[in-house]
Structure formats: structure tokens, C-alpha cells
Amino acid sequence: QSRLSLVSFLHAHIVLQVAAKFEIRNHDDAVAAHEECREDFHVPDDIYEKFLNYEFPEHRRTKCYVECFLTKMGLFTANKGFNEKAIVAQFTYQNFKNLESVRHGLEKCIDHNEAESDTCTWANRVFSCWLPINRHVVRKIYA
What we know:
This protein has about 140 residues and is an all-alpha fold. It is built from seven helices and two strands, in the order ααααββααα.
């Protein structure tokens, strides 16, 4: 019991530290980001509906749309790549039980662009690996 309390306390402390620099985003933020990225990339309605459901099918607009969305949500920058602490904070602040899934996805999928891909390809490569493991978490937080 006390070990669990300590872990919960430490998790809350870490989330608060990260949150001091990173602003947790909510449903309204996600909707605004989706709308802005849709405008930027002129995404067709049928593809956009899938994006809103956090499904990102192969399409000529998908990679850069994903990069745009992740950037607007504060989870990725072209300079630094993925902000792993922000991803953990964003997707575990409501439910500590998500931590294992979020971390597992990061361990499995994160890279530092050793392939030297363009930022759209890099963001999409990592996110399309991480998302299937955590789609339920993303939908719960953003939908």
C-alpha cells in the first residue's frame, strides 16, 4: 500500500514538473489542432473523418498532417523530435494505469531520426508505431 502511494506521489510530482513546462492539452485543443492542420494540408473529408478518430491511413497528406498535429499538441518539434516526458504527462495525468502502455509504446517506437528522414516522415513513423498500442488512451483523452 505505501509503495503504491509513493509511486503515485512520484508520478504526480513528475507530471507536475513536466506540466510546468508543458501544457496538458484537452479535447478542445485537439479539435483546434485538427482543424488548423486540416486547413494547412487541405485534407479531403473522408480522410479527415478517419484522422478525427485517430486513424491515419496512407494518404499523400497523412505524414505532414501527423507532424502538424503532434507539433500543435506540444508532443513533437522539428528541432528536438518527440518530447517523451510530455507524452507521458499528457497521456497519464488522468489515469496512472496508462503509464505502462504509454511507456511500452515509447520504448518500442521512439527514435531520434537516425534515418535522417524529413520531419513529416519521422513524426509519422514513430507515431504510427506508438498509436496502435495507445489508441484507446489517445481517444479517451482527446475525443
